[in-house]
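Retro notes, structure queue

What went well: the backlog is down to a handful. What didn't: a couple of records were mislabeled last round, so from now on we paste the full input next to the output in the thread. Example, using Helix-turn-helix transcriptional regulator from Flavobacterium zepuense:
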Amino acid sequence: MDKYNNIQSFDELINLEHGIIGTESRNKYEESSQMFIISEMLKEARKDANLTQEQLAEKTGTKKSYISKIENGKGNIQLSTLIRIFEVGLNKRIGLTFL
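Corresponding output:
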């Protein structure tokens, strides 16, 4: 626990646990974090739209298994497909921010 005594921010904790931005460990952490956020946003938006995974897949020309993989944070997502799922299937706009 001594290594946590001087931690004063969440960023410091992440740096300690996963390394600084640009390291392999941190990149894996960041990728997993972003995938989790996307999966949770998709689940919430789909449920708010009262759609099943199958209905959303039909609306967007994908498969139920693909929607399920995204919602479970598995696999790779093509940006064009993600945009189609949110914009066509769920009538939501996507905004991207690069930091």
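Agreed that this is the format going forward. Reviewer comment attached to the example: Residues 71 and 79 are 15 Å apart (CA to CA).
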